[in-house]
Design goal:
The chain is of the alpha/beta class. The chain has one domain: 3-Layer(aba) Sandwich (Rossmann fold), CATH 3.40.50. Helix content is about 30%, strand content about 25%. It is built from 7 helices and 12 strands. The strands form 3 sheets. The chain has a 5-stranded mixed β-barrel, surrounded by 4 helices. Strands 1-2 form a two-stranded antiparallel sheet. The protein has a two-stranded antiparallel sheet with strand order 8-9. Helix 4 crosses helix 7. It starts with about 40 loop residues before the first strand and ends with a helix. It binds uracil. Uracil binds next to strand 6, strand 11 and strand 12.
Length: about 325
């Protein structure tokens, strides 16, 4: 028998709450089986540790920025080209490194990776595994992870920015459950408090919108899972919905989305410094439908991008 399940590695620091302290250093994976693979095909990224020279391609990566939509992450990569003053030779364009896979996009701009993760935990989980292995094979060190997302807010003006201090599931439990070999394993979803505060300080410099640190509820569904009345099915009343949303809001939940639990749990398990920063696109205490114009949504989605870009510029000594 092995000692499965096993969460900690020798050398991990754990605080009294069971939190693994995020650390700098090499990006590590926790899978002894990988050593025995003659080739590891990162199928959904269209990369391999044998067919591609991953250290040459990626060893300088320091910041990995995830977001749901491929188009938004392309725009973020283009934005980072400007923010970092990267020169793209005339006639050349930014390349989607994972173009062969058609599942996710992956752009590299200097030390920044911009990656799409699709919608929901299963989609994020797949690309997170492969990005972690990619960084490990590339021998990257001191890497920080960010999720730049959209969410439904609770009691805050749409367009506000929420930085997640802790992610919880639809039952307000602070861990992601994964059915593994017939057992339910619970992976705690802690995030890096210092990074949250650093991002809030930057976000607060823009007075055009409100920024807060709060808890994020992560659900497995956009409609019934988030208490919406406008899905194809609904078994609860408008009163039930408001009572639930007010109850979770009273417990410190500022926004609702569909990836934070997995992002926080996987980053915590890898002892990575990571943060989740989302704009809100609707106040769920007032509406279920997202009715803002395309232009307004574009502007709101730029807010987390600008905050993270500024943080990266500061880290690189460019501010
Ligand atoms: N994303 C979600 O998951 N929910 C919302 O209400 C808005 C964006």
């Amino acid at each position: 028998m092995s000692d499965f399940p096993r969460f900690m590695e020798p050398g991990d620091e754990k605080d009294i709450s069971g939190r693994i302290t995020p650390r700098d250093g090499p990006v590590t994976v926790r899978n002894p089986h990988l050593e025995h693979l003659s080739e590891d095909v990162l199928y959904h990224l269209d990369l391999s540790n044998k067919a591609n020279d991953l250290p040459v391609m990626f060893s300088d990566v320091k910041f990995v920025c995830f977001g749901g939509s491929p188009n938004r992450m392309k725009k973020f990569a283009e934005f980072m080209v400007k923010e970092l003053g990267v020169k793209i030779p005339a006639g050349m364009a930014l390349t989607n490194i994972s173009h062969g896979s058609d599942r996710y996009v992956l752009y590299k701009v200097a030390s920044v990776l911009s990656v799409s993760h699709g919608m929901g935990i299963p989609s994020l989980s797949i690309v997170f595994h492969e990005v972690l292995k990619l960084l490990h094979y590339a021998k990257c060190t001191d890497v920080k992870f960010f999720r730049l997302g959209t969410s439904g807010g609770l009691g805050i003006e749409p367009g506000s920015v929420v930085i997640t201090e802790a992610a919880v599931d639809g039952l307000l439990r602070p861990y992601m459950e994964v059915a593994t070999l017939g057992m339910v394993l619970q992976h705690p979803a802690f995030l890096d408090k210092n990074l949250c505060e650093e991002l809030l300080e930057i976000a607060n410099q823009d007075k055009a919108y409100k920024s807060v640190i709060g808890k994020t509820m992560c659900t497995y569904d956009f409609y019934e899972g988030q208490g919406r009345l406008d899905g194809a099915f609904c078994d609860f009343t408008a009163e039930d919905k408001i009572a639930f949303l007010k109850r979770v809001h009273d417990r410190g939940i500022q926004n609702i989305e569909m990836e934070s639990l997995c992002f926080a749990a996987m980053a915590h398990r890898a002892a990575l410094k990571s943060a989740i920063i989302c704009c809100t696109v609707v106040d769920r205490l007032k509406s279920d439908q997202i009715t803002a114009s395309h232009e307004t949504l574009e502007e709101w989605q730029m807010r987390p991008q600008r905050v993270v870009a500024k943080y990266i510029r500061q880290q690189l000594g460019l501010e």
